[in-house]
Amino acid sequence: MAPHPLNPVPDASAAGGIAHLLVSELVQPVPPAVTSFVADMVGPSRPLGVLFYGSALRQPDLDGVLDFYIIVERLPDWPAGGWARTANRLLSPNVEYHERHVDGRMVRAKVAILTLEQFRHMTGRRTLDTTIWARFCQPVRLVWVRDAQAADAILGCLIRAVAMAARWAMALGPRQGTAEEFWNALFSNTYGAELRVESSRKRPRAIVQGHEARYRALLAAAWRADGLPFVEHGDVLEPTVDAAWRKDMRDGWWLRRRMGQPLNIARLTKGAFTFAGGARYIAWKIKRHSGIDLPLSPFAERHPLICLPRLLWSLRQAGYFRRKQGRD
Question: 56 falls in which pLDDT band (50, 70, 90)?
């Protein structure tokens, strides 16, 4: 698309503003239990960095499950079996479950593993997968980092995620509207493209709520940095891209929407074989929601699929399914 006269070239100062805002978020403090957990989990490994994100960041709950992404230079930089690394190369990321005692309390986390190369690809324009850039245009904290160079590399991916999100927000949003309306349209579409249990109407608004100023500043800055033309009428933003650009983008979204759920199903299927600690995670979820303690032998932890019939029988004997039916 030819540059538009109202906003002809990418604005470098706007890109610098995005970087400044994201850095200020990355270094904000988190509860000491979170940093202790991460330091113990990383141990002698040397990943590039660990990102803390998700609902546990927005509303801290150390009794729930924390969410982390570990960014590594190479997959062998994180301890895992050969099959798990191969699976991560074929369909990233792999997910693990970790639990550790921190200051006398049990802290639990889901941990995803990505290489820097995968992170860059999944926040770039060629990716058909919406999950990573849609997740990392939201606030995150860098709770562990190897060195300054690693921090810069991770920051670069987060800037790419914001740029991708803002570009799609313009394409999928209203002809004109507030920044919140553009972000809500974006997150409604990304939730709709994924296999999510949350409502694609209520959840997007919850993401933006309470952070309106942040998302408002990022949207306009990202459009300027990308050279995307728009005009401002007070709080109302009006993109002035031509119809051909919007049609090309929406055609591209059709493919991403069609690919979203199959990709999520493929990851869930892969996770049945690669989700390290998955049996303990499921047992904890069952106990939290039903009060039923499902003891796991070491063999069951290592081979949950083999032991699935026996585990289901144990739940049946404990009355788990009767309780579920009673609540439905």
Answer: confident
